[in-house]
Backbone:
């Protein structure tokens, strides 16, 4: 590669994070530290019912136990300092006001923040027809389009509100897909989660608009621990979008979220993420530790859950959106683009657990690594001994930009039934010199050539995102690639 | 138009010299054919002219429209009007033909101080030029060369040539892999693009192509040197007698 190409890749690797500003809003933050008392305090600040406090405390006990017995999970291809759980504040709300009835009541500075993030909260943008729930630090600050959704019987609100108004649903489903015993970070989240989003689509309803949540860490020294719960009743359909950013800070911030999806008979849930947490600077200082447990269960026959993600942010990503294919003929999908640069590390992939008859899953993962980053795909396809006629197709492609980064693929297969049909394809390519030269020979600059080639590489996935989001995602990827080239 | 003087080039990795003193002068409006046995250095010459990495130029110079070609980056050479139809066109998975060519056309236009083409004008241009080489319309909406047949790739090169309207086009074995009809279509296309201010260097193994695209000069490249030059009749003689007689002649001389 020519000098300019190398230079460009270095710049890509070092390029700036555009979302790193801090909003100056007053916040109510509890002191750092983790204990039963802190959990009681969070619970009381949120005026929670007793059963939820008990649930939290049970999770906390488990968290302490596995931290003592097993410590941190070490199996991922990641290298980061152990998190000091006592040095984090577990609750921060951007204002003393607990919630807002309408957007007019929201602190204009907050709206400005989301404006700067390009998030459609203003009226004009709301005409675009996306219902938005915004979670700043730990608290949901705004949910739009509630009334319109309510007419169809769709519930879309903050997790806190769901606890208050729909406790039966929350009690029934919370922890049913990701139990607090699942892993260290799931246990932590269950103990200290502060808010998140809740969506319920009743039987036979096709949700009339995309539901979306934007997460933003703002306050310093805080972690973000949100929970999302999505329930699609029989033959319901919903497309759910999640976006996230954080300010630039020198210390690492912990994000440990849990997302649970339940799809009943014939239901379909499409979950899309654009993850753009602050990745840290070029030297690897600061950045978000993104330790997330996302899982859906295809509970009923003929149900379908589909995960699509564009991962560009975070210093460390540890994330495996998974599907349990319990219903017969149920379908699970995982489509992912993970872009790492600088000193970012990503270990991401999926688990497809086939339990029902004639279930099928598809995994397409595209990893792009630049700079000194490490990008791993880790995926498990498990076919239960009773799951006859299961099918899986997996394809994992990695692309390297430069020679100081790494791409790794860790596919695991557990096949318990002889009728299973499983296909796995994996490729690793460097952005080819000959491809760049071909573009240049047509007058295209080396930098534009790299952009074209990378975009071509991810296109299959980006085109799976809902229209509006796809445009955003493409822009984000272009900015990430463009870096400070000018 | 193009003036190559005593050009020596070797492979960067191991220093093997491939081009051992090439001299060639192409005037505006001329068509030159280069023939020669496999491995003699024809594609290397084309690559070095277009600026592909991996070669060291150890001696000599190349001037293109009066400027030092070897001093330019490959994309600048292209914008200055040098076009290479690749012997093995490269696939760009997922990169849409229209997106690719729009980047190409607009960067060349910008270089020439022209405005960007609007999306509508661009699509019109694409349609017109595709008809010119009979490029299957479905290929225009696919990714660049991805899954194209050998012949389709070659035709796509000439389509791009027509789109970009270069000053000097180097065609590296564009005829290999084309069926008889395609050969005629592609040659017709090239002939229509012949102009007083546009030159061609046509690399080929076959006299047949030169029946359609009649060259002003024919050169034989062997062992990294041009060992014989002549008019169109030289190609006939090569077709009949092969290269051995030239080797013998070269030894005698
Ligand atoms: N990058 C390279 N690395 C190693 N060898 C090379 C490289 N480029 C060219 N060569 C060698 O240089 C010689 C000339 O190759 P070139 O492709 O120019 O031949 P050609 O005349 O185009 O042949 P053909 O008619 O088969 O297309 C060959 O021996 C080839 O193997
Ligand atoms: Mg050749």
Residues:
């Amino acid at each position: 590669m020519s000098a300019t190409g190398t230079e460009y890749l270095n710049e890509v690797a070092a390029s700036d994070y555009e979302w790193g500003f801090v909003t100056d809003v007053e916040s109510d933050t509890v002191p750092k530290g983790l204990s039963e008392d802190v959990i009681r305090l969070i619970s009381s600040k949120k005026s929670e019912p007793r059963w939820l406090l008990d649930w939290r405390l049970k999770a906390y006990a488990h968290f302490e136990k596995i931290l003592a017995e097993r410590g941190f999970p070490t199996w991922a291809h990641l290298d980061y300092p152990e998190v000091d759980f006592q040095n984090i504040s577990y609750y921060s709300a951007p204002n003393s006001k607990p919630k807002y009835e309408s957007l007019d009541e929201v602190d204009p500075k907050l709206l400005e923040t989301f404006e700067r993030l390009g998030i459609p909260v203003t009226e004009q943008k709301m005409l675009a027809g996306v219902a938005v729930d915004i979670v700043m630090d730990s608290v949901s600050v705004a949910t739009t389009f509630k009334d319109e959704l309510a007419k169809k019987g769709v519930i879309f609100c903050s997790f806190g509100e769901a606890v208050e108004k729909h406790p039966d649903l929350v009690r029934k489903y919370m922890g049913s897909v990701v139990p607090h015993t699942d892993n260290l970070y799931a246990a932590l989240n269950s103990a200290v989660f502060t808010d998140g989003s809740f969506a319920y689509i009743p039987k036979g309803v096709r949700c009339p608009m995309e539901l979306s949540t934007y997460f933003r860490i703002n306050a310093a020294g805080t972690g973000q621990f949100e929970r999302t719960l999505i329930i699609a009743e029989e033959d319901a359909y919903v497309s759910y979008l999640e976006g996230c950013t954080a300010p630039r800070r020198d210390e690492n911030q912990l994000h440990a979220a849990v997302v649970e999806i339940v799809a009943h008979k014939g239901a379909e849930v499409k979950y899309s993420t654009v993850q753009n947490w602050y990745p840290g600077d070029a030297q690897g200082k600061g950045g978000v530790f993104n330790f997330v447990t996302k899982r859906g269960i295809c509970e009923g026959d003929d149900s379908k859950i589909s995960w699509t993600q564009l991962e560009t942010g975070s210093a460390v990503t540890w994330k495996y959106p998974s599907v349990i294919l319990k219903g017969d003929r149920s379908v699970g999908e995982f489509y992912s683009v993970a872009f790492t640069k600088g000193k970012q590390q990503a270990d991401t992939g999926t688990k497809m657990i086939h339990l029902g008859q004639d279930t099928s899953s598809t995994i397409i993962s595209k990893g792009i690594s630049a700079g000194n980053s490490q990008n791993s795909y880790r995926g498990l396809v498990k076919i239960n001994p009773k799951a006859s006629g299961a099918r899986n197709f997996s394809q994992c492609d990695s692309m390297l930009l430069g020679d100081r980064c790494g791409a790794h693929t860790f596919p695991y297969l557990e096949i318990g039934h002889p009728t299973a049909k499983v296909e796995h394809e994996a490729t690793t390519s460097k952005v080819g010199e000959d491809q760049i030269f071909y573009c240049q020979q047509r007058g295209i600059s080396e930098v534009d050539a790299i952009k074209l080639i990378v975009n071509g590489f991810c296109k299959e996935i980006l085109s799976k995102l809902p229209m509006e989001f796809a445009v955003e995602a493409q822009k984000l990827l272009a900015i990430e690639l463009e870096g400070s080239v000018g | 138009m193009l003036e190559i003087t005593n050009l020596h080039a070797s492979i960067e990795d191991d220093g093997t010299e491939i081009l051992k003193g090439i001299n060639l002068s192409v005037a505006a409006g001329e068509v030159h054919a280069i023939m020669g046995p496999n491995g003699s250095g024809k594609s290397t010459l084309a690559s070095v002219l277009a600026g592909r990495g991996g070669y060291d130029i150890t001696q000599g110079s190349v001037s293109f429209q009066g400027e030092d070609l070897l001093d330019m980056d490959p994309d600048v050479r292209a914008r200055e009007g040098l076009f290479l139809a690749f012997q093995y066109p490269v696939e760009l998975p997922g990169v849409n033909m229209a997106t690719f060519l729009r980047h190409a056309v607009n960067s060349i236009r910008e270089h020439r101080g022209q405005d960007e083409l609007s999306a509508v004008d661009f699509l019109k241009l694409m349609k017109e030029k595709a008809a010119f080489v009979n490029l299957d319309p479905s290929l225009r909406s696919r990714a660049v060369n991805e899954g194209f047949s050998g012949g389709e790739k070659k035709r796509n090169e000439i389509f791009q040539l027509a789109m970009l309207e270069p000053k000097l086009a180097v065609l590296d074995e564009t005829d290999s892999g084309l069926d008889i009809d395609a050969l005629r279509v592609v040659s017709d296309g090239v002939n229509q693009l012949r102009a007083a201010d546009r030159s061609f260097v046509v690399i080929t193994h076959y006299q047949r192509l030169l029946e359609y695209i009649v060259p002003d000069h024919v050169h034989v490249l062997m062992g990294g040197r041009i060992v014989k030059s002549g008019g169109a009749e030289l190609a006939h003689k090569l077709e009949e007698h092969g290269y051995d007689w030239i080797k013998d002649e070269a030894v005698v001389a």
